[in-house]
């Protein structure tokens, strides 16, 4: 099989494990000699990061099944670009870009499922794509139980990027934390079921007992202001550090002693692989 021309689609505008996996996959496929491009909303973080990495980025709103304009735009993109594969990721783009792929006669339409949440549209796993990628065995088993034929679903685990080497972290200098401090970190988008509130509640008695203990939370999202208000209400800004969105996650991890994963559920706990990289 020769090099393929692959178009990824993503309607999500945020940045979390799903978007991070997609970008890593795009980079890996390009390194193998394939041509990889992406279509997403103009303000999607994945599109911005992809552009920084040198990928061709196309823009479409992809607001749902009724977004005919985006569907026709992507159909034209697929036909004129002679793409071999369209790989969709979220609900809206799986409807819009997936249907566009079918209308354009793209040889392979693939849907990737990155979440452990209940699916909302069975059609985006059965009728539209030729194949479905599950990021873990649990997700594959769930999709099959929900009605997706087992012969259509393959499990492809997340890859681990080779570490850069033993570089010194700048995190403690940035936060004004001494070398003798104990620093615990979590990396996750701030939204429901990620457990940030639980971690703060668990941290409170520990912080009272240990003057040199600090917690670091890397990531932003729809709950960022809510979590920030909780921390400020407890007057713990100097002990619980909210970093927001970071592109230097490895630098953050190298500056910490403990990694904490307080999430309620994960399709594949990608953050757990990061401390080992």
UniProtKB/TrEMBL annotation:
It comes from Caballeronia sordidicola. PANTHER family: GLYCOSYLTRANSFERASE, SPORE COAT PROTEIN SA. The keyword tRNA processing does not apply. Signal peptide: none annotated. Residues 15-160 form the Glycosyltransferase subfamily 4-like N-terminal domain. One of its GO terms (molecular function) is glycosyltransferase activity. Residues 171-269 form the Glycosyl transferase family domain. It comes from the Bacteria. Keywords: Transferase. It holds the Pfam family Glycos_transf_1. This is Glycosyltransferase. InterPro entries: Glyco_trans_1, Glyco_trans_4-like_N. The keyword Zinc does not apply.
